[in-house]
């Protein structure tokens, strides 16, 4: 950083700015407001462009991350298989929003629509690959074609309840697919990784709040088990091949573009249509709801940390650190929609945990993580987005 002290008449400012802007990306001024004179300015040299491989970059969290990285001027390679877990058209709209294109898209059929999307969105800073991480040969071609600085691995089969019905699929995607990526990182020298894990690894942890040092050897769903397995295998690749890794344990993320199968989105849609919502248990189950902007802030800060440090293997909680129970969650949606929910009371489901609550002290200390959005503010933003896009 270059710091220069100045006292200039206001008419000379523009000349000096034009001399500086040719070599600098940003200029910061501190004004003496009494005399309208510049006392100081600081210039920051342009940051080098990085090449990021983001898996699952058309999903909820992934599309927000891609959008952020592109706005920062980086090159993004997005791998997504547009899985039928939910409507592929949702992911097409996510993708278009992430690259700042209109979401007015003429849909026909899945295969042709995705081919059209790939061609429409490609630019000097972005490329989308319609690829499954279980296809190692296709992944190898991507690694061969691009110099990758950092892998941000978000792709996964998600969801506790579906994993009970499809445990083998979850193993193939979340474990084997992840290992394909690490084998290629090893082969092509990609030494910096940030990997999505999940708060589900804590199971029904009796200690509140959940800390990264807590024992997580007793998951209660196949999904949670696959996430725990990847954390363990990640350490193997770190130890043997020097791949720096940060695993991020996400706590119930919500906000614009949230998957339609997740509770907040699902309940908002059903309440808005005067339909019954499935209400499991007595309403006392609780979650650490974390707004998407805070999650992206944590992911980006983790990326910067792993870029600037060596011999890194860390697990980090990313949550809000405050708990909202099911009754409170529904009430927040009702207030924003100005409608009352029609509840269909159901028993607790297998694999569901009673409560999640993140201890985020490590995230604060290590990456300067500081979530800003409380549940009620976040649900207001989400409902406004939902009403605009339904």
Number of strands: 16
Number of helices: 13
Strand arrangement within the widest β-sheet reads 6-5-4-7-8-9-14
Q: Kindly provide the name of the CATH class of the largest domain.
A: Alpha Beta
**Could you say what the CATH topology of the largest domain is called?**
Rossmann fold
Quick check: average pLDDT? 90
The biggest beta sheet is recorded as: 7 strands, parallel
In N-to-C order, the SSE pattern is EHEEEHEHHEHEHHEHEEHEEEHEEHEHH
Number of domains: 2
Under the CATH scheme, the architecture of the largest domain is 3-Layer(aba) Sandwich
Outline of the structure:
With 390 residues, this protein is an alpha/beta fold. It has helices at residues 13-21, 60-71, 88-98, 110-121, 136-145, 160-165, 167-188, 222-241, 263-272, 292-308, 326-337, 361-367, 375-389, and strands spanning 2-8, 24-32, 37-45, 51-55, 75-80, 126-130, 150-153, 192-198, 244-250, 253-254, 276-280, 286-287, 290-291, 313-318, 324-325, 342-346.
Task: Name its key features.
390 residues; alpha/beta; Rossmann fold; 2 domains; seven-stranded parallel beta sheet; three-stranded antiparallel beta sheet; 21% strand; disordered N terminus
What does this structure look like?
The protein has 390 residues and is of the alpha/beta class. It folds into 2 domains: 2-45; 51-324 and 330-342 and 347-389, NAD(P)-binding Rossmann-like Domain (Rossmann fold), CATH 3.40.50.720. 42% of the residues lie in helices and 21% in strands. The protein is built from 13 helices and 16 strands. The protein has helices at residues 13-21, 60-71, 88-98, 110-121, 136-145, 160-165, 167-188, 222-241, 263-272, 292-308, 326-337, 361-367, 375-389; strands at 2-8, 24-32, 37-45, 51-55, 75-80, 126-130, 150-153, 192-198, 244-250, 253-254, 276-280, 286-287, 290-291, 313-318, 324-325, 342-346. The strands form 5 sheets. It has a 7-stranded parallel β-sheet, sandwiched between helices. Strands 1-3-2 form a 3-stranded antiparallel β-sheet, with helices on one face. β4 (51-55), α2 and β5 (75-80) form a beta-alpha-beta unit. The protein is globular and about 55 Å long. Mean pLDDT is 90; it is low at 1-45.
């Amino acid at each position: 950083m270059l710091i220069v002290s100045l006292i200039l008449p206001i008419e000379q400012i523009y000349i000096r700015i034009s001399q500086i802007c040719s070599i600098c990306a940003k200029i910061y001024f501190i004004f003496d407001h009494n005399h309208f004179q510049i006392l100081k300015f600081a210039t920051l040299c342009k940051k080098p462009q990085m090449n990021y491989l983001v898996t699952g970059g058309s999903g909820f969290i992934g599309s927000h991350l891609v959008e952020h990285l592109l706005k920062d001027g980086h090159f993004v390679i997005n791998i997504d298989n547009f899985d039928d877990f939910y409507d592929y058209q949702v992911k097409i709209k996510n993708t278009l929003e992430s690259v700042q294109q209109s979401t007015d898209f003429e849909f026909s059929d899945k295969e042709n629509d995705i081919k059209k999307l790939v061609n429409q969105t490609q630019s000097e800073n972005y490329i989308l690959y319609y690829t499954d991480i279980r296809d190692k040969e296709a992944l190898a071609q991507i690694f061969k074609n691009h110099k990758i600085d950092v892998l941000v691995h978000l792709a996964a089969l998600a969801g506790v309840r579906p994993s009970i019905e499809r445990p083998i699929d979850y193993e193939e995607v979340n474990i084997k697919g992840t290992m394909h990526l690490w084998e290629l990182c090893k082969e092509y020298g990609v030494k910096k990784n940030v990997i999505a894990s999940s708060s589900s690894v804590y199971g029904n942890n009796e200690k509140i709040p959940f800390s990264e040092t807590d024992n997580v050897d007793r998951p209660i769903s196949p999904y949670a088990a696959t996430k725990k397995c990847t954390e363990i295998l990640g350490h193997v690749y770190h130890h043997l091949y020097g791949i720096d890794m940060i695993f991020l344990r996400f706590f119930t993320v919500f906000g614009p573009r949230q998957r339609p199968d997740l509770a907040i989105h699902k309940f908002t849609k059903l309440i808005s249509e005067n339909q019954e919502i499935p209400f499991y248990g007595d309403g006392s189950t609780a979650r650490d709801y974390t707004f998407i902007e805070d999650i992206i802030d944590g992911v980006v800060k983790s990326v910067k940390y792993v870029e600037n440090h060596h011999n890194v293997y860390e697990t980090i909680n990313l949550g809000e650190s405050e708990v909202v129970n099911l009754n409170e969650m529904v009430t927040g949606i009702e207030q924003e929609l100005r409608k009352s929910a029609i509840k269909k009371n159901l028993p607790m489901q297998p694999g569901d945990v009673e409560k999640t609550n993140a201890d985020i002290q490590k995230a604060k200390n290590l990456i300067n993580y500081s979530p800003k959005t409380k549940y009620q503010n976040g649900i207001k933003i989400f409902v406004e987005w939902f009403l605009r896009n339904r």
